[in-house]
Amino acid sequence: MNRLEQSLLSVLQPWCQAPGWLLAFSGGLDSTVLLHLLAGLRRHHALPPLRALHVGHGLQAVAAQWPEHCAAVCAQLGVPFRSVAVQVAEGASIERAARQARYAALAAELAPGEVLLTAQHGDDQVETVLFRLLRGAGVRGLAGMPVQRAFASGHLLRPLLGCTRGELGRYASEHQLRWVEDPSNADTRLSRNYLRHAVLPSLREHWPALDGNLQRTARQLREADELLGELAEQDLASARLAPESPWQALPSLLLAPLRGLSEARQRNALRHFLAPLTLLPDERHWAGWCSLRDAQASARPIWRLHGGELHRSDERLWWLSGDWLQQPAAGLPWQHQAPVLELPGNGRLRWSGEAPSGSLRVAYRRGGESLVHPQRGRRDLKRLLNEARIPVFARDRLPLLYAGSELLAVAALPGYDRVGGEGTQLLWEPPTSDVGLSW
C-alpha cells in the first residue's frame, strides 16, 4: 500500500460505518485519482457503498462530452454513476454561482447520514487561504477548508487535503489514468487561476516552505476559530432562551445578555449565531448591528443581511427570511370549515375542537379592529397586541377569523384565539424562516 492509499484510508476510517459514500466526480485529475484510489481500497477493505455524481454546469461547449467520459471511467471501475445538469445563476462571480449550483445538486443527491467525498488537496488549501487573505477574511476564513463538516443531511469529507497536486499527478501517470482537462482552469482572468499560475509560482520560488507554512497557519487559525466558537456558545447560552410563542421556531436571541458583553465578544457571538443563517457581514456592515442594538425601545430597527434580516422587538432579536420578508397574500374564505387552511405565504390554520358553522373567512389586520370576549367585552385589537407583547413583525401576519363583518378570533393571541372565548381554538402554524446559504 503506497503513501496515498495509507493516507486516504486513515482519513476515511472514522466514516466506514456511514450508509453510503457519494463522490463528486468532475472527471478531472483530482477526482479521477480519488475515484481510482477508492475503487482499489474497497477490493481489500469493507467500505460503504460508493457511487459517483457528475454535475454539469453548461458553461462551455467542451463540457458536453464529460458525462460520457465519466460514465465510462465509473463503468470500468464498477462504480454506479449518475450525471445531473444545473443552471448557473447570473451574477458578478461566475465561480461562486457555479459552486453554489454544484453543491446544491450534491446536497439534493445525498441521503441522510451519507458522506460526500470531494477531491480538494493540499495545493487547493494553500490557494484558498491566500485567496481569502487577499479578500480580507477573518479567522474563520483564514482557517481554510475543513477536512470534514456537516453538509445537507450528512457530512462532507475532503480526504485528500493532506496530499499535494504533484502526488496526485504522479499516481495518475503511474496507473495510466485518463481525465478531462477543463480549459477554464487556464483562464487567468479568474481569480483562483491567477493565483495558481501567476502568483504562487513566484512566491514558492522565494519561499520554498510557503505551502507548509500556510497550511500550518490554517490549522492554527482553525483551532483559534474553534476556541472562539466555544466562547460564543458560552456567551449565547443565556440569550437563547426560547420564547413561548407559535413563532418560537424562528432563530432568536435575548438582547440583554449580549449588551453585557464587550464589543468584540458581541461580534464574536453574533458571527457564531449568524453563520448557519447568512453570509457573514464584512467590517463595514457591522454598523448595522450597533444601530439595531442602540435604537430607542419604540423604534423598529432592522439589520439587513444577505438573504434575511435581523429584527428587534421587545428586547429580543429575530432572524427573518423567506416568507417572513413578504406581505402575506390577501385573506380568503374558509370553505366548508376544512380541517386545515393553507395561507399563501403565511403558513396554515387548523382547528382544535369542532369547527364553527356558518360562512367564515380569514383576513389580516388593517387597523381599527376590535373583538368581543364573553367575560371582557369589546376590546381594541391594537391594545390587545401591545398587552400580549406580540412581536411587531408578526402583528400584521396574525390570521383574523371573521363571520361576515364580525371578528371572531385572532390566531396566536392568548385569550382571543378561541371562537366565543372558549371551546374551538384557532391554531396557526406560521411559516419557517428559511435557511439558505451559499455552499
From TrEMBL:
InterPro entries linked: Lysidine-tRNA-synth_C, Rossmann-like_a/b/a_fold, TilS/TtcA_N, tRNA_Ile_lys_synt, tRNA_Ile_lys_synt_N, tRNA_Ile_lys_synt_subst-bd
Amino acids binding ATP: 26-31
Family annotation (Pfam families): ATP_bind_3 (PF01171), TilS (PF09179), TilS_C (PF11734)
Swiss-Prot/TrEMBL GO biological process terms: tRNA modification
E.C. no: 6.3.4.19
Chief location category: cytoplasm
Reactions the enzyme catalyzes: cytidine(34) in tRNA(Ile2) + L-lysine + ATP = lysidine(34) in tRNA(Ile2) + AMP + diphosphate + H(+)
GO molecular function: ATP binding; tRNA(Ile)-lysidine synthase activity
Keywords: ATP-binding, Cytoplasm, Ligase, Nucleotide-binding, tRNA processing
Residue span(s) of domain Lysidine-tRNA(Ile) synthetase C-terminal: 360-428
Subcellular location as annotated: Cytoplasm
This protein's GO CC annotations: cytoplasm
Domain of life, source organism: Bacteria
Family indicated by similarity: Belongs to the tRNA(Ile)-lysidine synthase family.
Task of the protein: Ligates lysine onto the cytidine present at position 34 of the AUA codon-specific tRNA(Ile) that contains the anticodon CAU, in an ATP-dependent manner. Cytidine is converted to lysidine, thus changing the amino acid specificity of the tRNA from methionine to isoleucine.
Record's comment describing the protein's domains: The N-terminal region contains the highly conserved SGGXDS motif, predicted to be a P-loop motif involved in ATP binding.
Name the UniProt record assigns to this protein: tRNA(Ile)-lysidine synthase
Organism: Pseudomonas fluvialis
Phylogenetic lineage: Bacteria, Pseudomonadati, Pseudomonadota, Gammaproteobacteria, Pseudomonadales
Gene expressing this chain: tilS
